[in-house]
């Protein structure tokens, strides 16, 4: 069933944004730096021998990534667990000018029960990675994959799998108490939490995706309010690509930021059954007068001359992600980009 779509004409301005160092940059998170027009951008750098290192950028959101400073940061190795991959997701402002980062890492040798090697982390300290790294272990450590996606207001959100169970499990992590709290929407089969926005006091808005018995194999995006004190949710609303539930196979919100019009902006990835295949969109949703979420406005994102696009994070009206193109020699190249959306 199709619902009304905001048909305002939008224009999108695209620019590349990459670490100038050799390697493939994947942007995965962004947050404005307090008291500044600069931003923190987190991601990963794929270098030689497929080694994946964490990245944190501080600087302006211009210049293609050349006007700020990129820092390579990695979860520290120990004699019993050598870290060979680190991937940084959502950054956030920490106390006294520090940065907070969440993400995942892998070890070459580990005593942890993690066949896939994906473990979650929370970091707080200087942007050079010299601060405190903490392992995040939801479900009592009984996990097969852990990915911590975003952090704000003292709470991080993420996902995990358990052995022989690929259904997604979502959780919240208190950065002060180190407590992990399982999160499950009513009547859901799978849950993902990718974005969190702190509205103030105990109020948060969460973004991600879920499937249910009602949806079958389909998956929809969602927004929901969360009270950290009562641990109760409210104003749950689901979303499908272009508000078309009949043809949307998968719709997922990859993050969230507040907008200037009493609402939120989200990056979305989707797969549609109408012949469009899959793609990326910039999504804006306003609050209704009663506090509930209104209908979504969708702006498709497609970097020029690209073969595939992924929406990974959003800041104000800027969506950041990656795109795939083919160079003159016929080789596929993956690059990161910024798409500035103007209505």
Structure description:
With 343 residues, the chain is mostly beta strands. It has one domain (11-342): 6 Propeller (Neuraminidase), CATH 2.120.10.10. It contains no helices and 25 strands. The strands form six sheets. Strands 18, 19, 20, 21 and 22 form a five-stranded antiparallel β-sheet that branches.
Summarize this entry quickly.
The chain is mainly beta and 343 residues long.
Note the topology:
Elements: E1 11-16, E2 24-32, E3 39-46, E4 52-59, E5 69-73, E6 83-93, E7 99-107, E8 119-125, E9 132-136, E10 145-152, E11 155-162, E12 165-174, E13 180-183, E14 188-200, E15 203-212, E16 220-227, E17 232-239, E18 248-253, E19 257-258, E20 263-272, E21 277-287, E22 293-301, E23 308-315, E24 318-326, E25 332-342
Antiparallel strand pairs: 1-25, 2-3, 3-4, 4-5, 6-7, 7-8, 8-9, 10-11, 11-12, 12-13, 14-15, 15-16, 16-17, 18-20, 19-20, 20-21, 21-22, 23-24, 24-25
């Amino acid at each position: 069933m199709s619902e009304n779509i905001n048909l305002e004409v939008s224009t999108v301005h695209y620019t590349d944004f990459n670490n100038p160092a050799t390697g493939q940059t994947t942007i995965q998170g962004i947050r404005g730096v307090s008291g500044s027009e600069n931003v923190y951008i987190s991601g990963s750098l794929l270098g030689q021998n497929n080694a994946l290192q964490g990245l944190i950028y501080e600087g302006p959101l211009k210049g293609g990534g050349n006007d700020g400073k990129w820092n390579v940061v990695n979860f520290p190795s120990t004699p019993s667990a050598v870290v060979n991959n680190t991937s940084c997701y959502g950054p956030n402002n920490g106390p006294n000018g520090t940065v907070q980062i969440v993400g995942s890492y892998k070890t070459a040798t580990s005593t942890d029960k993690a066949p896939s090697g994906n473990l979650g982390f929370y970091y707080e300290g200087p942007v050079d990675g010299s601060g405190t790294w903490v392992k995040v272990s939801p479900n009592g450590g009984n996990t097969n994959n852990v990915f911590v996606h975003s952090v704000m207001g003292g709470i991080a959100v993420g996902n995990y799998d358990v052995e022989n169970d690929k259904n997604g499990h979502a959780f919240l992590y208190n950065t002060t108490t180190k407590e992990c709290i399982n999160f499950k929407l009513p009547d859901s089969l799978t849950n993902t939490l990718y974005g969190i926005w702190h509205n103030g006091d105990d109020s948060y808005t969460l973004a991600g995706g879920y499937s249910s018995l009602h949806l079958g194999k389909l998956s929809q995006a969602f927004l929901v309010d969360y009270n950290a004190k009562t641990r109760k949710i409210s104003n749950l609303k689901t979303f499908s690509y272009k508000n078309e539930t009949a043809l949307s196979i998968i719709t997922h919100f990859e993050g969230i930021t507040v907008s200037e019009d009493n609402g939120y902006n989200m990056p979305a990835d989707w797969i549609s059954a109408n012949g469009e295949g899959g793609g990326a969109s910039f999504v804006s949703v306003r609050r209704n007068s009663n506090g509930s979420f209104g209908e979504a406005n969708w702006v498709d994102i497609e970097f020029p001359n690209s073969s595939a696009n992924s929406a990974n994070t959003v800041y104000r009206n800027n969506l950041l992600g990656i795109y795939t193109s083919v160079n003159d020699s016929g080789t596929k190249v993956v690059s990161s980009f910024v798409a500035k959306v103007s209505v």
